[in-house]
């Protein structure tokens, strides 16, 4: 398989960049390579390409086959154009100087295109920013106009209110002058009516205050009742919790007492078992002593039986002798 010029992936997820490498066509994509030729980063606009021109041209002249993406990158950087011109020089179509001139002209045109693209992108960004600023300025101007309109309306309303107040004051002043000019007889009932009105106002004020005080007292009483009920509920909850705690403590104590009794019973059983175990060898020791005591008694009984048997045999023998003697006497 021939050598391939291809990309080896690096970077993180959704933000990859690539190394341009010369590698064996049978090797994996990100595996072993022969030589690194450059870096390709498609995350920028325009894409960033760093390429070793001479090494890449050398591999192309040796017959290395680029992939489609690498071919586009090499064409973008002018490597394929350079290779084409060198093949023309090798065939004798033109000289090396002419090839260099043509390549320089091509590179100049290519750089101009790239720079135009960069300028267009920067201009588009600037235009976007300017359009946004203009839109914000228009919005701010409309808001300022609305605010001024509202303020002017409020000022007009305030002026009208002030003019009305001034007119009322003038009317009150005119009425006061007319009242002063009126006869004294008319003043007395007016004063009395004014006093009555003042008294009525005071009475109403006192009533209102009394009503408000009663309402406040009722509210305070209701609050106190609510608090008392809350306290009662809290006391009930506390009592219930205390009863529960006492029941739990009693249950725990009963369980403890049962356990203590069980432990005591077990201890008693163990003590009894130990006493039985301890008494067993003592009883075994006593058995031989009792046997020793009974042995002489048995011996004595046996000897007495023997003596009685001997006596009986002797008596029988004596009786037999007497019978024999009597029999002999009769014969004689």
User: What's the number of structural domains?
Assistant: 3
Major sheet size, sense and barrel closure: 5 strands, mixed
How many strand segments?
Answer: 5
Strand order of the largest sheet: 4-3-2-1-5
Note down, in words, how this protein is organized.
The longest helix is centred in the last third of the chain and has 148 residues. The chain has 332 residues and is of the alpha+beta class. It contains 5 helices and 5 strands, in the order E-E-E-E-H-E-H-H-H-H.
What topology emerges from the helices and strands here?
Blueprint: E1 3-12, E2 15-24, E3 35-41, E4 48-51, H1 53-62, E5 65-66, H2 68-77, H3 79-91, H4 96-181, H5 184-331
Parallel strand pairs: 1-5
Antiparallel strand pairs: 1-2, 2-3, 3-4
Helix pairs in contact: 1-3, 3-4
Summarize this, please?
The protein has 332 residues and is α+β, with helices and mostly antiparallel strands. The protein has 5 helices and 5 strands; from the N terminus they run E-E-E-E-H-E-H-H-H-H. A hairpin with a 6-residue loop joins strand 3 and strand 4 (48-51).
């Amino acid at each position: 398989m021939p050598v391939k010029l291809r990309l080896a992936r690096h970077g993180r997820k959704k933000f990859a960049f690539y190394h341009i490498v010369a590698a064996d066509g049978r090797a994996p994509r990100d595996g072993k390579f022969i030589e690194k030729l450059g870096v390709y980063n498609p995350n920028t606009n325009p894409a960033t390409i760093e390429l070793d021109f001479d090494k890449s041209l050398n591999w192309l002249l040796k017959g290395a086959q680029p992939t489609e993406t690498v071919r586009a990158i090499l064409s973008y950087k002018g490597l394929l154009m350079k290779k084409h011109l060198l093949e023309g020089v090798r065939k004798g179509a033109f000289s090396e100087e002419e090839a260099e001139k043509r390549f320089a002209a091509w590179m100049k045109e290519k750089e101009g295109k790239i720079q135009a693209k960069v300028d267009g992108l920067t201009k588009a960004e600037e235009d976007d920013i300017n359009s946004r600023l203009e839109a914000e300025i228009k919005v701010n101007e409309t808001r300022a106009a609305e605010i001024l309109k509202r303020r002017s309306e409020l000022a007009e309303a305030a002026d009208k209110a002030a003019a009305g107040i001034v007119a009322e004051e003038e009317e009150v002043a005119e009425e006061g002058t007319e009242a002063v000019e009126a006869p004294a007889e008319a003043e007395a009932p007016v004063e009395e009516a004014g006093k009555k009105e003042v008294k009525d106002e005071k009475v109403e004020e006192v009533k209102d205050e009394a009503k408000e005080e009663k309402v406040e007292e009722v509210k305070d009483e209701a609050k106190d009742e609510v608090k008392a009920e809350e306290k009662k509920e809290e006391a009930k909850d506390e009592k219930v919790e205390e009863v529960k705690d006492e029941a739990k403590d009693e249950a725990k104590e009963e369980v403890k007492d049962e356990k203590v009794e069980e432990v005591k019973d077990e201890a008693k059983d163990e003590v009894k078992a130990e006493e039985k175990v301890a008494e067993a060898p003592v009883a075994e020791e006593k058995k031989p002593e009792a046997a020793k005591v009974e042995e002489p008694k048995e011996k004595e009984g046996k000897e007495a039986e023997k003596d009685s048997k001997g006596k009986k045999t002797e008596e029988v023998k004596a009786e037999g002798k007497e019978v024999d003697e009597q029999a002999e006497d009769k014969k004689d």
